Amino acid sequence: MSEKKNITELKKIRDERKREYAFVEKMIVEALRAKLPQKAKELIDTELVSARERLAEADEELKKRRFERNRKKYQAKKRAQGLCVLCDRPLAPGSKSLCQYHVDMSKVRNEARNERLKKQGRCPQCGAETAGDTIFCENCLKKRNDKSNERRAQGLCATCGIRPLAETSTWYCEVCLEKSRKRTRDRYHAKKMEEE
Ligand SMILES: [Zn+2]
Ligand SMILES: [Zn+2]
Ligand SMILES: [Zn+2]
User: Fold this and answer.
1) How far is the CA of 160 from the centre of ligand 2 (A)?
2) Is the N or C terminus of the chain more exposed, i.e. has fewer CB atoms within 10 Å?
């Protein structure tokens, strides 16, 4: 028995044993049930079923954890290579894990989600109910302000935290300033269209 077997062979043997075990288990349970009083039969049914369910749950949990661990490892590797964790394109400037395409995709998704939460009067950051006319809840608003001010204190853009503040702004860098202007313009035009 010293001869080495490969994984496929070992898996085949394990599956065979599993079937064998299930068969024997079934035989024993059936034989027992036939000889037992009603109460014991019920016990076998409920206890066995719940033990099996607990096993399946633990199995599922383990699988999820393994998947998560593998995913994290994979993503760390991709990041270290300077590649998007979702595809093989290079990282977008300013992003730690996504390419330009996936940055844009996630923006679109986030906007849709934020829009939905906003309509429900809930905070886009944590989902908590907001106090009325603010977009973020009190908690997240404070956190965001702290973070923004910390960035500004370092001379960085409060929004992206990457680029330095624009000369004409105490809040945005050149890029974010332009984006904010565009948003304002778009909103203005959208409103005008609605009015017409
Ligand atoms: Zn990508
Ligand atoms: Zn919140
Ligand atoms: Zn910025």
Assistant:
1) 19
2) N
Task: Give the pLDDT confidence of 133-144 residue by residue, as tens digits.
Answer: 788 888 999 999
Report helix, strand or coil for 192.
helix
State the average pLDDT over residues 31-51.
80
- Domain residue spans of the chain: 1-34, 155-196
pTM above 0.90?
A: no
Residue 83: φ, ψ to 5°: -115, 155
How is residue 18 written in tokens?
A: 């599993």
Ligand 1 centroid from CA 175, angstroms? 22
CA gap 107, 124 in Å, rounded: 13
Centre of ligand 1 from the C-alpha of residue 113, in Å: 20
